[in-house]
Amino acid sequence: MSQYNQEEETIEEIAGGEFERQAVPQSRLQSWKAFLGMYAGEHAAGTEFVIGPLFLTTGVSAFDLIVGLLIGNLMAVLSWRFLTAEIGTKFRYTLYFHLEKICGKRLVTAYNLANGVLFCFLAGAMITVSATAVGIPFDMEMPKLTDTTPNSLTWVIIVIAIGAVISIIAAKGYQTVAKAANWMSPVIVLAFIACGVVALIQLDVHSFTDFWNIWGEGSEPFPGQIKYTFWHVVLWSWFANAAMHIGMSDLSVFRFAKKPSAGWTTAGGIYIGHYVAWIAAALLYAVYLKSPEAQAMLAGGEAPSVAPGPLANNAIGIFGIIAVILAGWTTANPTIYRAGLAFQAIMPKVSTFWVTIIAGSVATIAGLFPAFAMKLLGFVALYGFILAPIGAIIVFDHFFGKAAGIQPFYAEKTGVKFNWAVFGAWALSFGVFYFISVQYDVFLSFLTLPAWISCGILFLIFSKFYQTKTAPVST
């Protein structure tokens, strides 16, 4: 086994539960190669088969899609490098332990509940993705873009079967699944590239101009979708993983890095998964849109399905079906496992096996409803919008806390269980900006950064009043 694989597997093993309440020791730090493998595998996933086609449903232009994704993903990489990796290698704590030191145990428990539920919904979308591939041999009716509820008994049976298998495997053999996912990721990436190449051939593309003209100047959005501009693409792709970078969830990963420069390795996963794979999946959908079936649906004012299984099957046959199943499966498994860990923090007396089964059951129920996958652009934006401001608490506490005259790690030093300054800053930021989004129909990703900055500033202001006495300085 190569050093690369040894380091990658070590990261997978220790990130699952060691050093939960202490800094990672120097002896367990890993080189940048381990993180490159992890991120390459994590971001070429089942969601990519859905997100690419969904961009086309928004009527995006060629420039807005190709250049917008280039810039938005760069901003995400910079966020990982200069915020998440910087703080992760400074303190070497998990997100939950770091938050507990600032917020108090009770407030972190509430965060764990929200995080766990949102993880379950995301895993449910992955189960939906796999189901669209498993259902092909059964001639299953695929969910439409506008579907919110199950459309057939066959769909229900397949989703429940997939969810049960994934949940049991996640509960009993996560480490094996995590290692298998790393070995499968090159196969999934190869499938994305193959799908893109075949789609280019089917679209009769012979030059860059032909490729550019696939999207051209854009079009009107499909029924039920909003029009995406350049800034929609930039901000959505930047904040698609907002919970992980500016939301600080990946502190739990980068605490094992030797240097903050390990944050640059996220570019490997992002530009493979969130650039090449998204564009390849969009090309698959562009092929389908030229079919008589899709044209008939558009003529009738109905949006053609973005079901990944049939799209991949149309391009590369059985290999495409297998790739979609693997992509959904390998993403849903660790997601359900992480949701189980979040729930276990709330129910510490319940075994890891049973909290994972609970998380898997919630994810399976979510998977029955195609809306989580068909509306994935909106759900991912909401997911980041809810969780990202919590990361601002950590960032502002670290970079600006001393200048603002507040005690860092206030809850740890005073024994506070529920830091009202933290809760007030998050609740006010979330409430005000979510109201603006709903009331004035503002795209949620436009408001994620303002809500994040607002939460950080309010945290500093509220903490000045809340910290009525100086916490004892640790020695």
UniProtKB/TrEMBL annotation:
Q: Which GO terms describe its molecular function?
A: cytosine transmembrane transporter activity
Keyword annotations for this protein, in alphabetical order, are: Membrane, Transmembrane, Transmembrane helix
Read off the InterPro entries from this record.
CodB
For this UniProt entry, what's an example GO CC term?
A: plasma membrane
Domain of life assignment: Bacteria
TM annotation in the entry: 62-83, 110-133, 153-171, 183-203, 228-248, 269-288, 311-332, 353-373, 379-397, 418-436, 442-462
The protein in question is named Purine-cytosine permease
Taxonomic source organism? Leeuwenhoekiella blandensis (strain CECT 7118 / CCUG 51940 / KCTC 22103 / MED217) (Flavobacterium sp. (strain MED217))
